[in-house]
Sequence to fold (586 residues):
Amino acid sequence: MKAEIHALLQQALKALGNDGILEAGAELNIPVERGRDDSHGDFASPVALALARSARCNPRQLAEQMVERLPDSPLIEKTEIAGPGFINFTIRDSAYQMLVSEILKADEHYGSSKLGAEQRLQVEFVSANPTGPLHVGHGRGAAYGAVVANLLRATGHKVECEYYVNDAGRQMDILAASVWLRYLQGCGETLPFPSNGYRGAYIQTIADELRSKHGEEFRLPANTVVENLPPDEADGGDKELYIDSVIERARTLLGERRYRLIHGHVLAALVEEIRCDLLDFGIGFEHWYSERSLMDSGSVTTVIERLREAGHLYEREGALWFRSTEFDDKKDRVVVRENGQTTYFASDIAYHLDKFERGFTRVINVWGADHHGYVPRVRAALQALQEDPARLDVLLVQFANLYRGGEKVAMSTRSGDFVTLRQLREEVGRDAARFFYVMRKSDQHLDFDLDLAKAESNDNPVYYIQYAHARIASVMRQTEEKGFRWRPADSTEVTGELGEDHELVLLRRLSRYPEIVEAAALAYEPHQLAYYLRELANDFHTYYNAHIFLVAEAPLRNARLGLINATRIVLRNGLALLGVSAPDTM
RNA sequence: GCGCCCGUAGCUCAGCUGGAUAGAGCAUCGGCCUUCUAAGCCGGCGGUCGCAGGUUCGAGUCCUGCCGGGCGCGCCA
Fold:
């Protein structure tokens, strides 16, 4: 509908140009809005206000001249000029009534568009280090990224979801060492556990698996493991130095082959756990991209070489630096450390170059807001490599805090004292978790109220929306029980019966759905859809309370059943985009 | 100190590329079940849009400066 209004205005503008009232060719995007107030009609355009200045004329007068030149349309009941020069459009009831058949026919496709023209996009999200199970902090990025991907698919983009696995860093070594030490303890060796090691219960689980699979293949006497190590923090030493020595010791004693076996086992176990957690959360990825593979394939050294040849690198204090300040970064960044190892940033340059070379029109990264300082250097690197940084969108997601009984739930990763995504899902359910994560704008801190998410009451927005869907399903069951029969085709000829205010309000809301999906997708803002669904559910509940659907007169009954089934379709489609189920009973 | 995000009703938050009288949920107060699920509906109360300037026909929205909160400023990932 909005698009049609837009087209009408465009033709009027063109006519004005032809008549010499406006300068032709002044192509501007014509603003069309939904009327905020009923008295303003259904759509409004301030286009005359915007043009009045350059045309040096009275905006109301200009609006009048535009209205005179608007082509006829079956959509339009009337046009009015109001206020300083708004053009208000009132849509015919019949146009809304016809929407019922349109929605019933389009069914699961209602709301989808071809806006994206099959452009290939990549959404990379979660990408949490595989050093433990996902916790509630990752959950928001997971839910958000998945819905953004869904919205982009619904608007005609070809979307691939990707998880970048940081399987190459020091943290992974600390993890492998932690598991090995637990393994040794399990074998009966007595040794201290590093204060900087990973302590979660899952470490023990993986160590036990390792032992049942490999027996005592990795067992070594405790004294050879700990002898001559520097003091740990508990003994007045440095915990970082200590843990690095433990890792070094593990590599030496085990040999590279056995060390890699353990490392690989730990990595596989954790990635698998993460994959399952996400799957249970309704989120799947097309690709799991390994950082290590970038190093093994030589991509990292190749990209460093490219930067060097292009003159963007220099040496200082034994390290190799990328001159990112040349591209608006605040300081230059190290790509190769003094010890010869490449940095995480170096991997990331290779990774982003690879993404670009895979041919995506746009590459979208969903990152935690704590990484915002990292964005400029990635863009800088892409520019240095002659790539267009505008193809990269970085979406920053603020943190989520859990509240239980009005109290903030404290969490810290290293100590193993955190609420996992799995625990959250088991506590509040997948639907509530998914909905709560995306109901706030992503750049807003999220207060996640566990008690509210669990509440089976009208306070809980998830149930409120799902209840609307279940009620409609219930009415359809009643239809059969009362001996009526309804098929979508039964509504087509009778939608003219839908004249009640509540019905027209509901129809207007349904007509907005495609616009909401489009706006939410283009702005990467799932919360817009969440709000819309709440409002739609409200309109339905109001209608439900005001009118009986299963009346004796068949035309009216069939018209109403058509309307509520159209409502059901939109509720179901919208919830599906959010990753929330649409139950038939509650 | 510098950079990014945020500041809207008692609380949690919307407010579409600047548009008409700033909205919703919760809380609170009061109504509605012999009728398709009351997990629902209707109404009341509640605001100097952090503060001060500026831009213009028009500012919660854009610009500048303050005040307040969060995050980031590693040869960690």
User: Anything to note?
Assistant: Residues 239-280 of chain A form the longest helix (42 residues). The first strand of chain A starts at residue 33 and ends at 34.
